[in-house]
Amino acid sequence: MQPVATTFFFYLLAGLALLGGVLVITRKNAVHSALALILTLLALAGLYLMLYAPFVAGVQIILYAGGIMVLFLFVIMLVSIEKAQREEQFNRQWVVGLLAAVALGALFVFVYVKGSALFPERMMLPPESSNTQEIATYLYGDYLFAFEIASLLLLVAIIGAVVMAKKRI
Amino acid sequence: MPDATKYLSHLELGQPDKTFLDSNELIINMGPQHPATHGVLRVILKLDGEKVLGTECVIGYLHRGVEKIAENRTYTMFNPYVDRMDYVAAVSNGLGYCQAVEKLLNVEAPPRANYIRVILTELNRLASHMLWLGTHALDIGAMTPLFYTFRDREEILKIFEKYCGARLTTHAFRIGGCLYETYEGFEKDVESFVRFVRPKIDEYEGLLTTNRIWLERTKGVGVISGGDCIALGVTGPVLRASGVKWDIRKAQPYANYPEFDFEIPTGQNGDTYDRYIVRMREMRQSLRIVEQAVNKIPEGPIMAKVPKIMKPPVGEIYHSIEAPKGELGYFIVSDGSTQPYRVRVRPPSFVNLQALDLMVRGQLVADVIAVIGTLDIVLGEVDR
Amino acid sequence: MLDYITSYLRMDATPGQAGNIFWIVVYIFVVFGGVSLAVVAMNWLERKALAHFQVRLGPMRVGPHGLLQPIADAIKLFIKEDIIPAQADKFVFWLAPLIILCAAFTTLIVVPFGPTHAITDVNIGILFMLGVSSLSVLGIVMAGWASNSHYPLIGALRSSAQMVSYEVAMGMAVVSAILMTSLSGFGAFGIGGAEPGTGTLSMIGIVQAQQAQHVWFIFKFFPLGFVALAIFAVAMVAETNRAPFDLPEAESELTAGFHTEYSGLRWSLFMLGEYTAMIAVSSIAVTLWLGGWLRPFPNGLSGETWDLIFSLFPGLTFLFLAAACFYSTARMPKHPYFRIQTMGLGAFGAVLGLIGIVLFVPAVRDRIQDIYWFVAKVAVFMYLYIWYRATFPRYRFDQLMKVGWKVLLPMGIGVLIVTAAVGISPEMLALLRHGH
To answer: I need a surface site. Which of B148, B172, C67, C305 has the fewest CB within 10 A?
Structure first.
């Protein structure tokens, strides 16, 4: 299947992701920030699609945008945010922040300038039609142990949350 | 929102355990206008999240001063007023009042009048329970039984209309007996109605009794023990569902109930499901009584000899009957004149409503609505 | 230009896969228009069917037998005053119904009405549908929050908690159905024949797997497929916030629903989104378990005559509907007031009959088959939705969550494990027997 208008879509999605990112940190209202983050995540899902990784895109939408962000919104709405909004915005470590931002920017510029020379010769281009199967083969084959450890970690987190939220065991 | 906590200070509600995820304690108001409070009842709820910590009922929105009016009407003139109290079961109200005044006057209604009274009262019990079933199921979410029960209740109301001209506030009885003779075809109508409605009751039971969702919504909800019922003075199906076998038709019989063969259904757990079962069984027992009565209505007069101007001797009387909602009592004080000195009505819904607080403590908000429905209150009776 | 348009007709793929923008747009319009029409029809059907369940008639005045009632409702909602609560967040208030609507309609992109009759077919089809429908939770939360009122917020949080919980159970049921696509041995109830195939997540691929395996997944490994469908059927009712799982939006409860503060057009967008979501999840159920666009017994009763017999069904359906219209027309009261209604109903019946006759034409008949069977199966699910609403009382919220987490999820996991065990049992047996 032939990809359609790749450049246009790339710039569109990247622009949306950047816009979302900027909005996250500039909005005063926490709910607006969360919504902007959702915009960024959806744009990222689109970028994954363009990288021939449909499974990752689907999972990004289901879990990240549809699950984790809902949780974010729950917390923001349940916890009274009026107090947080009236609090003073402090910015005492601006020097360190500036240095970190400059370093990150330098890294971006370096990667852009070097271009594709950074990547190894033989780059694996997984065929789009079996992305799910390939991921499954690796996940349940080579990386099974890591997978199980991750699920155990999540289980511990769930139990911890339940313990903290219940009034009596 | 005005602070309603002062209403609840007497309840001595403790503070819930505080954690860092402390849930809000809310005081919310199920206002007089609410689809599920069966009239103008205001319930103030103190909630901890979803759990009910305490309630306070604010009544009086339908108070019409009926008892005060009674002091300025003659005994016969007051008869239509009693229908308006429990407007769902008006015939029972009339029966109780007429029998109370007859006791004061020391007259007895003739046997034919008693038969007519019993048939109409039991039909009214059936109609009241049908309305209860429809509205209670609607509150819990089952929309359809409402329409079925109302359609079948129409048949009863048609019989009432043919008999005395009114469907709801019937004013069917007079002091000393009945005014109206049974109309042509009354027995046939009643018999065919009994045959018609038995499978309908089976239909209602088929929809709800073994429905898993109904069971989950009603079992264990609003439990009250028999001892608590007696302590609060709760009567009627609520009392019987908690295990106490007390029905005034058997315990202190009136009219000619001893002539009929019927049972008193009781429950064991005193929860909403048991009250539902008790009322369904009561519907069937009412049908039994009507069936037996309609076959052997004796001939004879329908009105005893009462003076035109009623001046009962000085004295007081308390007479109670088993209304569909509980013990309906009339305490009439006569001072020898044509107008009563005092008529005090003991409405079953008013006394039963006290049990609401006990029944919903610790339950969830959605159960409050189910419990109000299962108590089967009529605000006309609660407020008078 | 014309060549561009006609070149697609010679291809054997969905427009999205072919990359033909013209036909993509045409298909989008057709699907969205069709679904909107279905929502309108569903509105009417719900009121009429509910009424008939409750021994009443439902709308009868606006148009013959209330057929124009949805249009009257739409006009009323359009011209209503647009009220935004004071101090509500205007942007989020405006955005919430749009998110729900967009999420619901976007899922329709991959719904397969036929082997090439879908807007497109992504190879993560079912994952895409589940994911995008989970975005509607965001819309609900935003709607409740933007109303700036205590009760809608609680109602919204409850609705979204319910939807998220039942998504898990839905996912389990879906996974067990996807598992069946890779077990390509066929035989009675799908047992027998031991070659594992490649499973697929694509919607069209799932139906083609059912066709290749000669069994609808509802019957595969009976009763496993059936239990999986049952789990999904219950979860999808809870997912769309319909009875008996509609406590967050019931009128007689204390916390009103998330759409309380919405009036007029915005509220109708919520309803549109809700019905579209119902159609979308029903489409998932039909595709995964009921064979999608396949006619009954596509392999069992194959051949020219059986194909012909089954291809008569669309026309017969429309002729039956037309006959019902004519029967009602005959029974209309003969009063002059009803003249216009009678004529309208007769005309409607004539239109339906005409469509039915057109569907008998062989050229149309062969093409309409897939769409017809798919729509018929989805319509059955829609009717079930209405039936549930009329019959069942409502679950209390904690009982609702209990059913989702403690009943459906363990059942779903159990079905998945057993399906996997049964599915690979031929290989396991071969392994045990041959030892390699």
So the answer is: C305
C-alpha–C-alpha distance, residues C102 and C94, integer Å: 13
Specify the amino acid at residue C186. F
- In the block, residue with structure tokens 């209602």: B204
Q: Each residue of C232-268: b (16+ CB within 10 Å) or e? A: bbbbbbbbbbbbbbbbbbbebbbbbbbbbbbeeebbb
Pairing between β-strand B177-178 and β-strand B326-334 as defined by DSSP bridges: unpaired
The span from the CA of B328 to the CA of B369, in Å, is 24
Q: Is C89 on the interface with A (CB under 8 A)?
A: yes
Which residues does chain C have within 8 Å of residue A59's beta carbon, measured at their own beta carbons? 127, 131
Per DSSP bridges, beta strands B326-334 and B315-323 are: antiparallel
Alpha carbon A46 to its chain centroid, in Å, reads: 12
Domain boundaries defined on chain A:
1-87, 129-169
Place of tokens 């119904």: C97
Q: Please check whether the domain covering B66-383 is classified as CATH 1.10.645.10.
A: yes
Q: What is the predicted ipTM?
A: 0.82
Tell me if the domain spanning A1-87 has CATH number 1.20.120.1200. Answer: yes
A136 to chain C: which residues are within 8 Å by CB? Answer: none
Burial class (CB in 10 A: 0-12, 13-18, 19+), B233: middle
When pLDDT is cut at 50, 70 and 90, the band that residue C252 belongs to is low
| Sign of the alpha-carbon dihedral angle for A59, A62, A66, A71 | negative
Model pLDDT for residues B265-280, shown as the tens digit of each residue = 998 888 999 999 999 9
Q: Which residues in chain C are contacts of B139 at CB distance < 8 A?
A: 252
CA distance B338 to B321: 24
Long-range contacts of A9-16 (CB under 8 A, 24+ apart): A9/A46, A9/A50, A10/A47, A10/A50, A13/A43, A13/A44, A13/A46, A13/A47, A13/A50, A14/A43, A14/A47, A16/A40, A16/A42, A16/A43
Given a contact cutoff of 8 angstroms between Cβ atoms, the answer to whether B327 and B340 are in contact is no
B147, B330 Cβ separation under 8 angstroms: no
CA pair distance C273, C100, nearest whole angstrom: 6
pLDDT at C187 > cutoff 70:
no
Q: What is the mean pLDDT of chain C?
A: 85
H or E element, residue B57:
strand B51-58
C16 vs A93, which has greater pLDDT?
A93
Q: Where are the alpha helices (DSSP H) in A27-143?
A: 30-50, 54-59, 69-78, 82-86, 94-114, 131-140
Residues of B in contact with C55 (CB under 8 A): 147-148, 151
Considering only CB atoms, C124 lies closest to which of A31, A35, A54, namely A54
Per-residue pLDDT of chain B (384 residues; tens, 9 = 90+): 455 555 555 555 544 444 333 456 778 788 787 776 678 888 888 887 778 888 888 888 889 999 999 999 999 999 999 989 888 989 999 999 999 999 988 898 899 999 999 999 999 999 999 999 999 998 888 888 999 999 999 999 999 999 989 898 888 899 988 888 888 889 999 999 999 999 999 999 988 988 889 998 898 888 998 888 999 999 999 999 998 999 999 988 888 899 898 999 998 888 999 999 999 999 999 999 999 998 888 888 989 888 888 888 999 999 999 999 999 999 999 998 889 999 999 999 999 998 998 899 888 888 888 898 899 888 889 988
**pTM over the 0.95 mark:** no
Are A45 and A53 spatial neighbours (Cβ–Cβ below 8 Å)?
Answer: no
Top residue of C396, C399, C403, C406 to mutate, by most chain B CBs within 10 Å, is: C396
| Residues with Cβ within 8 Å of residue A90, at least 6 apart in sequence | none
User: What whole-number distance in Å separates Cα of residue B59 and Cα of residue B384?
Assistant: 10
Instruction: Say whether C393 and B140 touch across the interface (CB within 8 A).
Output: yes
Interface test with B, best of C46, C54, C389 (most B CBs within 10 A): C54
